[in-house]
Design goal:
It is a single chain. The chain is mainly α. The chain has a single domain (6-114), classed as Annexin V, domain 1 (Orthogonal Bundle), CATH 1.10.220. It has seven helices and no strands. The longest helix has 15 residues, at 38-52. The protein starts with 5 loop residues before the first helix and ends with a helix.
């Protein structure tokens, strides 16, 4: 149907951390559980806050690990905890930091969790 594979398109049309993120996501290894590890949520939300407070995007590998290794339910809990700690949703924070990663995952997780 298509002349190029998705993998080849992603590799040719993206670069850097964003490319690595998309390639990792295409592997389809994110857990699908609905169970939430509350202690891990706290650690991950604090880690996002620490990594992003002054320098959002400079610790992109940390963001990639979270987004590629956490289930949708876990990500939603992390985003909620982040909002509690930061006083703003990660979506609002991304406007300050211009991160396409948070937009991608916030939208992806919300869509899959709501319908």
């Amino acid at each position: 149907m298509y002349s190029k594979s998705l993998d080849k398109d992603v590799r040719s049309d993206t670069s850097g951390d964003f490319r690595r993120l998309l390639i990792a996501l295409m592997q389809g290894e994110r857990p699908e559980t609905t169970k939430i590890n509350v202690e891990q949520v706290k650690k991950d939300a604090q880690s996002l806050l620490n990594a992003g407070s002054a320098k959002f995007g400079s610790d992109q590998p940390r963001f990639n690990v979270l987004f590629c290794e956490r289930s949708d339910a876990q990500l939603k809990a992390i985003f909620n905890k982040f909002a509690e700690l930061a006083g703003k949703s990660i979506g609002r924070k991304k406007r300050s930091y211009s991160s396409k990663f948070t937009v991608l995952f916030r939208g992806s997780s919300e869509k899959r969790n709501n319908g």
